[in-house]
Amino acid sequence: MAKLSQDDLLAQFEEMTLIELSEFVKAFEEKFDVTAAAAVAVAAPGAPGAPAEAEDEKDEFDVILTGAGDKKIQVIKVVRELTSLGLKEAKDLVDGAPKPVLEKVAKDAAEKAAEALKGAGAAVEVK
Fold first, then answer.
1. DSSP string covering 35-96, please?
2. What is the pLDDT of residues 55-78, one digit of tens each?
3. pLDDT at 117
């Protein structure tokens, strides 16, 4: 098998949805027995109270669609981009709001997904 360059890998990751990328990270962590958040944990211990504060900080967020708004078709398209759902499943999710679109994702991924949904006219909540 030919070795992929870093640019080739990044190009592949760009084409993945957030769900696919999240699943890849989990599989990578399991395969190599590592944690992607380890660098953050290493930087945190400075003050004596820092480890307790780090445990309280939430690192997994849910993106919940609370309403489709006026542009329902655009919202369905964004839901399909964010997830690996088919057209019918994405439509059912949008019709059944409030429902979670993404669950247990990183804060930045949740914010990007919420922003994309809001841009399409949806009402979104990040928990």
1. -TTHHHHHHSTTSTTHHHHHHHS---EEEEEEE--S-HHHHHHHHHHHS---HHHHHHHHHT
2. 456 778 888 888 888 888 888 888
3. 87
